[in-house]
Amino acid sequence: MRILYGVQATGNGHITRARVMAPALAAAGLQVDYLFSGREADKYFNMEPFGDYQTRRGLTFALRHGKVDWWRTLRSLHLREYWRDQRELDLSGYDLVLSDFEPVSAWAARKQGVPSIGIAHQYAFLYPVPGHVRAGSMAKMVRLFAPVDNAIGLHWHHFDQPILPPMIQPPSLAPRHERDKILVYLPFDPLDQLERRFQPLGDYQFYIYTGVDKPEDRGNLHIRPFSRDGFQHDLASCAGVICNSGFGLISEAIQYGKKVLTQPLKGQLEQLSNARVLERLGLAVVLERHDPKMLAEWLERGAPEPQLYPDVAGALSQWIATGATTPARDLAQALWQTSEMPARASVCNG
Q1: How far apart are CA 101 and CA 120, in angstroms?
Q2: Is 241 left (phi over 0), alpha (psi -120 to 50) or beta?
Q3: 7 strand-pairing partners
Q4: Which residue of 51, 53, 147, 201 has the fewest C-beta atoms within 10 A of its own C-beta?
Q5: Given this chain, do its domains 2-168+310-347 and 181-299 carry the same CATH topology?
């Protein structure tokens, strides 16, 4: 079976999932080519697992000062190029398209009649996820953005729906907790703003990953360029993570047993929903805006217990290799039964 795997690359979480899926798909005997869209071609890094991958411009949101800038988003859309890329993507040699919420390959599959499976956190919003904000709008947006024949959603709880656990690689480094070390990943906040926020907290060392060219240490602030290996090292050794409310990084932090302080991007419905679910599940402290008092209280908190996830990538790859005939609900039930995540459905209703 030959597969084209389309990956939304606006955030690193989608690429992280693809890194986990790539060896599992290969182990299942599947031939896979990769297509990424959503960022400039020269902005990808550590892409060796994907071989001779393709890129397209795709679609993405423009962000400014930690929130979606809808005017800049509309102005930055290259719709003519996007439609051309859909039209010209030749899928005649493929048996299946996998989509991690990637629109070019998903729409090309729909138009060319090639079977498609979506595997992404966003597809969980096709179901009534508790804490869901503007549920109807989210479901419509997901179907419009990257439609697929068979949608597999991932989330921190199943909510009595055919939703799978997070797809996260088992910890590659032995976790340890340096009590004063905090990992900060707020890539859409200006660096000078982050400096003003964290520099006065001299009892803590903040490792801030942002768009710089080389590492720099400024007192208790350690500014770092994007790097998969460096980021994983700091995640394994930190006491806590401060980040937006995306799905991938928070899932990794939960698995490592790191406390999480999260600030959802304003105007980003997925992140607003994630934040509410995290709060209800007791998995993170949520800040709608910077609050020095709540930050100080969170810094004093202890570490939660690590919560390991099952081998979602392996199960999905075998499911795909055998024709994806088993109902998604059966697959979800089997995986959640082997998960160490606590059953918290009672706190998620409503």
Answers
A1: 6
A2: beta
A3: 36, 100
A4: 51
A5: yes
What is the third-level CATH fold of 181-299?
Rossmann fold (3.40.50)
* Tokens, residue 72: 């800049």
Residue-level pLDDT, tens digit, the chain, 350 residues: 999 999 999 878 899 999 999 999 999 999 999 999 988 888 888 899 999 999 998 876 555 555 554 445 555 667 888 899 999 999 999 999 999 999 999 999 999 999 999 999 999 999 988 776 566 678 888 999 999 999 999 999 999 999 999 999 887 777 889 999 999 999 889 999 999 999 999 999 999 999 899 999 999 999 999 988 899 999 999 999 999 999 999 999 999 999 999 999 887 888 999 999 999 999 999 998 889 999 999 999 999 999 889 999 999 999 999 999 999 999 999 999 987 655 454 445 44
Q: Which of 86, 105, 162, 152 is nearest to 336 (CA)?
A: 162
- Integer Cα distance of 286 and 259 in angstroms: 11
Could you give the 3-state DSSP secondary structure of residue 79?
A: helix
332's tokens: 């979800």
- Could you give the CA distance from residue 218 to residue 289 in angstroms, rounded to a whole number? 25
| Predicted TM-score of the model (pTM) | 0.90
Distance CA 183, CA 208 (A): 6
Rg, C-alpha atoms of the chain: 20
Handedness of CA 21, 38, 271, 301 (dihedral sign): positive
The CATH label, of 3.40.50.40, 3.10.20.30, 3.40.50.2000, 2.40.160.20, for the domain at 2-168+310-347 is: 3.40.50.2000
* Pure H helices in 218-347: 228-237, 248-256, 269-281, 292-299, 312-321, 328-337
What is the DSSP code string of 12-71?
A: HHHHHHHHHHHHHHHHTT-EEEEEEESS-GGG--S-GGG-S-EEE------EETTEE-HH
Residue 261's DSSP bridge partners are: 242, 285
Domain boundaries, the chain: 2-168+310-347, 181-299
